[in-house]
């Protein structure tokens, strides 16, 4: 019997354990932290052995294969020992994909992947396809594979998950964009992070597709230097293309395989240039699996978007409050500020992942009337924008930040939470930060 050891007892770890057990492995789950009660109950139900607050090496180094949680870096001593012994260390998406014949749409990128994943899934569902959505979003992919026989999977895939693939191959891969992010995991080398993202196409064949942002010079250059086997389908909001998706006369045009569809941009439910790109990517994927254009049109007009991503919360005294807590890097915040149509009170700050705020300067000059800092260390933000914006206020709690914003914002203006930073200094995660923002607004 093959021994499957799983490092990390969270959503992906427990899902993999269930699938491993079903497929006849001897399964062991090990977590250096505490395992949540709900997950322990699942492991007990399936009679799967586990340990917490320790990694017992004698129970791990005898594995035939190890699935590690995406949160564990490769540099960790235990992972290095496994590599030295020649024991394969893979990700959940690699493991689970071996046990499904479904058509896989894999979506990665620094920003936009959650919205693109949700929209793709929404269009497929509206078309009546039997589809599951998993990966970095929602339920565990492995657990889904163990319980369902979907015809399609739409997977949001992080670079950490791609680092652990061997044979994984999506039929349709979408690369939304690549901007510097998580560089602490990649020796602070942007090219290492890029190589990780492009692993999504490494096993693709000529009958597969790679949909990518042709306006992203980094992606275009990489593809020139590192050709892939799959068929390239670009999308662009800057130029018209021979093949792919582009904008012409306020319409989205998608040309693939001598077949063209047109959709007006006026009816799009999602606002902002970046959402135009997310919509083009998702619509192109839908077209490649032959979904009717009426279905695609109706879907992009009715889709509600992802929580914590440019989410309109409330209007109070003619001031619109927008929750963009998911913007954990400068690029995401750039798109948020770019989509603002009124003077904006901008709430920003948190744990800085090596941000260069200069890119935001033109938008801040044009749109931002006041900055409210929300982080333990706001010095970089104050240095960057202190001379550009008349009013910069430091706060240390969400309720305080929202109260200050309420006082500053005038009729017809917008209060935007778009932190450009991770949330771990004052919050559990970006969801917690976004939820605190929404609660503080409701308590005004």
From TrEMBL:
Could you tell me which residue ranges the Mur ligase C-terminal domain spans? Answer: 308-421
Enzyme Commission identifier(s): 6.3.2.9
Q: Which residues form the Mur ligase central domain?
A: 107-286
Entries under Pfam families matching the protein:
Mur_ligase_C (PF02875), Mur_ligase_M (PF08245), MurD_N (PF21377)
Name the predominant localization: cytoplasm
**Catalyzes what?**
UDP-N-acetyl-alpha-D-muramoyl-L-alanine + D-glutamate + ATP = UDP-N-acetyl-alpha-D-muramoyl-L-alanyl-D-glutamate + ADP + phosphate + H(+)
Q: Which organism is it from?
A: Maribacter vaceletii
Q: Which gene encodes it?
A: murD
* The UniProt record lists the keyword Translocase: no
List the InterPro entries: Mur-like_cat_sf (IPR036565), Mur_ligase_C (IPR004101), Mur_ligase_C_dom_sf (IPR036615), Mur_ligase_cen (IPR013221), MurD (IPR005762)
Tell me the route in metabolism or biology where this protein functions.
Cell wall biogenesis; peptidoglycan biosynthesis
HAMAP family listed in its UniProt record: MurD (MF_00639)
User: Which family does the UniProt entry place this protein in?
Assistant: Belongs to the MurCDEF family.
Q: Does the keyword Nucleotide-binding apply?
A: yes
**What subcellular compartments does it reside in?**
Cytoplasm
Supply one GO molecular-function term: ATP binding
Residue numbers binding ATP: 109-115
Q: Which GO terms describe its biological process?
A: cell division; cell wall organization; peptidoglycan biosynthetic process; regulation of cell shape
What name does UniProt use for this protein? UDP-N-acetylmuramoylalanine--D-glutamate ligase
Q: What keywords sit in the KW lines?
A: ATP-binding, Cell cycle, Cell division, Cell shape, Cell wall biogenesis/degradation, Cytoplasm, Ligase, Nucleotide-binding, Peptidoglycan synthesis
Q: An example Gene Ontology cellular component term from the record?
A: cytoplasm
